């Protein structure tokens, strides 16, 4: 069974075709990079996978669950770190974690235990009582990641997780992601930092204007003198169809 199977996905916003007949299969345990210029349709694809947006055509299954017919089961397998921060600015860290645990049907005792685990894992001990609105950008990112992992999902989807955080925090986040990958999580990452994707991902898909223009193992992008950034620029310039 694949972790994610997208078939002929099309999503329009009025006249804008944000995703245009996209096919995508991601294996379990893969560390997968989704690249593309601004407006390519990455976030829209993620919104369709996670049920934030409805789509016009095609199908999506996550860990064998159809996201339209079996939304709750599909959504429960995913931890999402969205591109835009979305948490109540007045809610303290602990509350935000507790709330998401409740959303996924975790009993109170289990939530309490899990909150301690993720708070420790992401070094949030000193900040646990602080409201979201008072956290620095790096802390917000850590919390969003902790929140995504609260219900221990099989799949982690990260939409530009390192945008606007400093170098040290970025390296710390990479370490977390490597550990999660080693622990068997399937990770889907979108990022503007090609270097980050090159370091972390096993496989990379490039989309442009809602269509897939490349789907290769990382080694294919980085062979010989090439690096991912060079290969990526060439692809998006030429916009070759595969
Ligand atoms: P990416 O994440 O790759 O930068 P998006 O998925 O955010 O791209 O956007 C894809 C296209 O859909 C863009 O043309 C964008 O302007 C459009 N779009 C995204 N969200 C909306 C929305 N809520 N309403 C209208 N158009 C949207
Ligand atoms: Mg986006």
Can you offer a commentary on this structure?
- The chain has helices at 42-49, 71-76, 93-103, 108-121, 137-149, 167-182, 194-200, 218-221, 228-238; strands at residues 4-13, 16-26, 31-35, 57-62, 65-66, 78-81, 155-159, 186-190, 203-208, 211-217.
- By secondary structure, it is α/β, with parallel strands linked by helices.
- It has a 6-stranded mixed sheet, with helices on both faces. A 4-stranded antiparallel sheet has the order 2-1-4-5.
- Strand 4 (57-62) and strand 5 form a beta hairpin.
- Helix 3 (93-103) packs parallel to helix 5.
- Adenosine-5'-diphosphate binds at residues 13, 16, 18, 36, 38-44.
Give the termini separation.
Answer: 25 Å
- Major sheet description: 6 strands, mixed
Low-confidence stretches: none
Ligands in the structure? adenosine-5'-diphosphate, magnesium ion
Please count the helical segments.
Answer: 9
Q: Give me the oligomer status.
A: single chain
CATH superfamily of the largest domain: P-loop containing nucleotide triphosphate hydrolases
Helix content: 25-40%
Mean pLDDT: 93
Roughly how many Å is the radius of gyration? Answer: 18 Å
- Which structural class do the helices and strands define? alpha/beta
> From the coordinates shown, what is the CATH architecture of the largest domain?
3-Layer(aba) Sandwich
**Could you give the order of the helices and strands?**
EEEHEEHEHHHEHEHEEHH
Overall CATH class of the largest domain: Alpha Beta
The CATH topology of the largest domain turns out to be: Rossmann fold
Q: Care to count the β-strands?
A: 10
Identify the overall geometry.
globular
* Total domains: 2
- Sheet with most strands: strand arrangement: 6-7-8-3-9-10
């Amino acid at each position: 069974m694949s972790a994610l199977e997208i078939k002929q996905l099309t999503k329009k916003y009025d006249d804008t075709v944000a995703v245009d007949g996209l096919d995508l299969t991601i294996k379990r345990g893969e560390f997968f990079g989704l690249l593309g210029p601004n407006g390519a349709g990455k976030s829209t694809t993620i919104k369709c996978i996670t049920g934030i947006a409805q789509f016009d055509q095609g199908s999506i299954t996550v860990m064998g669950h159809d996201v339209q017919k079996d939304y709750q089961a599909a959504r429960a397998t995913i931890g999402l770190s969205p591109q835009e921060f979305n948490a109540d600015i007045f809610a303290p860290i602990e509350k935000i974690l507790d709330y998401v645990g409740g959303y996924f049907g975790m009993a109170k005792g289990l939530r309490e235990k899990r909150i301690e685990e993720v708070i420790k894992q992401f070094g949030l001990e000193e900040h646990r009582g602080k409201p979201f609105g008072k956290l620095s950008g790096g802390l917000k990112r850590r919390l969003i990641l902790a929140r995504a992992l609260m219900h221990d999902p099989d799949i982690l989807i990260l939409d530009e997780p390192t945008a606007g955080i400093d170098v040290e925090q970025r390296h710390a986040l990479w370490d977390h992601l490597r550990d999660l990958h080693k622990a068997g999580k399937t990770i889907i990452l979108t990022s503007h930092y090609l270097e980050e994707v090159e370091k972390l991902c096993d496989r990379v898909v490039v989309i442009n204007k809602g269509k897939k223009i490349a789907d290769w193992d990382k080694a294919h992008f980085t062979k010989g003198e090439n690096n991912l950034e060079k290969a990526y620029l060439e692809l998006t310039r030429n916009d070759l169809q595969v």
